[in-house]
Structures are given as C-alpha cells and as structure tokens.
Amino acid sequence: MGVKISALPAIVTPALTDIFPVVQSGVTYKETVTQLQALLGTVGVTTITGTANQVIASASVGPVTLSLPQSIATTSNVTFGSLTFSPTTSGIVGTTTNNNASTGKVGEFISSQIAVGSAISLSTATATNLTSISLTAGDWNVWGNATFSNSGTASNFQVGISSTSATFPDPSFVAGMSFSTFAMTGAFQACAPQQRISLSGTTTIYIVVQANFNTGAVTACGGVYARRIR
Fold first, then answer.
1. What is the pTM of this model?
2. H-run or E-run covering 201
C-alpha cells in the first residue's frame, strides 16, 4: 500500500487479484483484492451462517436470502414433530366462544339425533339402527343414548355403539335393562357406553337398539355423538 499508481507497470491481462486504484487524500494508490477484503472484513456483518432446521442462508457470497424450513405467518399451517408444554399451567389454548373445530382437527364433533317426535318403531327381539354418523380416518371417542317408550309389556331394552349395521358390539359395550315382564306405559332411558374407535378410513358408526316385548308397541329415540381426540 502507499505506492503511486503512476509508478506501477502496465497490466496486459488484468486478473481478479490484480490492483485496484484507490484515491486517498488526492493521491492514487494500489490495493490488492486481498488487502481490500481485509479492510472491508472489519466493517458490518462479516459472516452469515445457515442451519438446516433454523435459519437457512441461500448463498455464501453475493446477495444472501434468509429463510426458515417452513412459513410461520399467523395464517400458515406449521408442522412440528412434537410440542412440549410446561408440566404446570401451560398447554394448548382452547376456544373462548361457541364455535366448532374444523373438519379433521382435534375437537371435531359429529352427531345425529332422533327426536321424540320422530321416534322409530321397533320389532321385538330385533337389533335395529336408531341412527348413524359417518366418521373419517382418525381416533374418536363415541357414545350415545336411547329412550324407549312402551305401550304394553316388555322384558328387555338394549343399546350400543357399533361399526356393523343392526349388530350389537361386544356385550361389554352394551347397556340396557332386563326385568320380569310387566305392564309399562312410560319410558326408559339407557346410555350406550363410550368407546374409542380408531379408523384408517371413512366408516359409518351406528347406535343400535333392541327391545323384547309381548304386547303393545315400542318406539325409540336418542342419538350418537363423536369427538375427534387426535
């Protein structure tokens, strides 16, 4: 540094590492690329290092673009392998109003009800679908209830949740009541035990009811309900 450019020999074929003229206090000096890099390296940001899972740097020289492995805007759908919350008070924030979880999201709720005014008629000792719902693939909690109305004599009422039409599940998931035949003109209620139903594809789920009766008629109303837990 400090050599006047007029004293330098001519360069026939300049290379990148050849001289650059630099004017200081009215006098032209020769500077090499290495010298200029050393000087500029002491000013501002000197290095940008990217990491695959945090901040990605698109280039090591020239204009550098920084990005993340995925978008994190307030409208983005962000995916992580897992999330860890404080074991005390922190957790997933729930809804603060009377809205519904979107299809496919945890908390999605699906139901079907048969009101008393639309109660279905039963044939004695015959498993019958009260109503049904269609559930998409996922992990669900499903439960139901039924109200039986009888105008004659009956000895048994049953209700359960099943993935097979007009077929009861394992007896451990069937609720009901049995008694000696007697005259009954009122109503009996029973709740179908809650089940975990894990599905790999869309499946129809039924609430199945049955009554054993000798005289009169029996009708049933009620519903089936499902909540996606994951």
1. 0.71
2. none
